Amino acid sequence: MVDSLLLGVEGIKKTILYGGSSEIPKFITGSKVTFHFRTMLCNDDRTVLDDSKKVGVPMEVVIGNMFKLDVWETLLKSMRIGEVAEFWCDIIHTGLYPMVAKSLRRIAEGKDPVDWHIHTCGMANMFAFHTLGYEDLDELHKEPQPLIFVLELLKVQQPNEYHRESWAMNDEERLKAVPVLHGHGNKLYKQGRFEEATNKYKEAIICIKNVQSKEKAWEAPWLKLEKVANTLTLNYCQCLLRMQEFYEVIEHTSDIINQHPGVMKAFYLRGKAHIEVWNEAEARADFQRVLDLDPSMKKLVKKELAVLNMRMEEKREEDREKYKEQIQALGNTIQETVEQAPTDQETALKETPEKDKLLKNTLNEETVKQNVPEENDPVGKTIEQETLEKESLEQEIAKNKNPVVATPVQNEILKNTNLEQETLKNEAPENGTLGNEPPKQEHLENESPEQETIGGETPENE
């Protein structure tokens, strides 16, 4: 069934998508309403901004609890259990939606919905634009526009039917809940149940901050609530110390010190956290500040400084061991490199003798080939044989004094002899010059050995 109608409120149009059961339930102050919602832009694509069904967790509001987007209370009061309806809402009803959506998204991401780290005065906050951390919400914040809400009512619980958490309380109820939560936290801390204690302290802090946000900063009511909030925060930090969340302790105590530099316990807890993370200089400075603010803490500070000295000695010993291991690892790497280098050299040396041996054998073979005369090769004769043949030939010539047909060997010997004689004459200046020497008879290589003679040539006497 689809109905389209106008509610008795300006700028709202309702369309029923699915009818609910029974009558409209009773909505009174303190009633907790559980429902799913989907938010869309009024464009052609009907762009979805948020959808609780995708997150998997329905939305809860308490009627009369000053919920920022009070138009949702108006819409829900017109619905039955199980009903699904679409509401078109004009800009006058949607201006605060980006802020509400930011908190809902942070909760879905497991983050704190309240950003405690923004501290600005009223004028600065009025003119400054702080990003919401989501681009689509920033655009909607700068340029508000009508939105479409699709709501599905799941259940309505009366005040006596559920346990009221801090977010569902009004300011008076929150202020009454703070000391109760504080006492529960202290009891859990003494029992060593630190994580449960932190939850109690955190819930009490949220109650105080919600009430404090409605007071004027730094005036008496605000300062009174600030003192309570600081006490709860320091108790919260003591639990974090036991849970070894040291950097979170440093962060929270530093926030208190920046706002209230005279809070001694903040310096003390921050000094203890610095000890655990080996920030020696920072720890000593914090404990000195503790003594400046409260000299009666001297004995306790002395004890903490002894712990600091012990922790720093442990740190130095740990560093020595770490450096020793690093040096040893470096030495092992160098040794492995050195051991690997000779292996390569040995491989090269093993290959070198084999190459040398092969080269030597090759040279020996070439030498043997050169020294062994070939058959019928006159050049292969030794020097002694050539000398004897030379002397024998000279004697025969001198004895017969007749031209003799020279053999190729004889012809070669005489040719060499003539060359030696000419060389000796050229080297002896007193015997004549090169210009007075008669031209020698040249023998062509193509001439037949049988046609060559040594007639007319007289060998030089030795």
Automatic annotation (TrEMBL):
Residues 347-359 have a biased composition (Basic and acidic residues). It is found in: Cytoplasm; Nucleus. One of its GO terms (cellular component) is cytoplasm. It holds the Pfam family PPIase_AIP. Residues 298-340 form a coiled coil. Residues 30-155 form the AIP/AIPL N-terminal FKBP-type PPIase domain. It comes from the Eukaryota. One of its GO terms (molecular function) is peptidyl-prolyl cis-trans isomerase activity. TPR repeats lie at residues 264-297. InterPro entries: AIP/AIPL1/TTC9, PPIase_AIP, PPIase_dom_sf, TPR-like_helical_dom_sf, TPR_rpt. Keywords: Coiled coil, Cytoplasm, Nucleus, Repeat, TPR repeat. Residues 343-381, 396-462 are annotated as: Disordered. Residues 408-421 have a biased composition (Polar residues). PANTHER family: ARYL HYDROCARBON RECEPTOR INTERACTING PROTEIN RELATED, ARYL-HYDROCARBON-INTERACTING PROTEIN-LIKE 1. May be important in protein trafficking and/or protein folding and stabilization. This is Aryl-hydrocarbon-interacting protein-like 1. It comes from Silurus meridionalis (Southern catfish). The lineage of its organism: Eukaryota, Metazoa, Chordata, Craniata, Vertebrata.
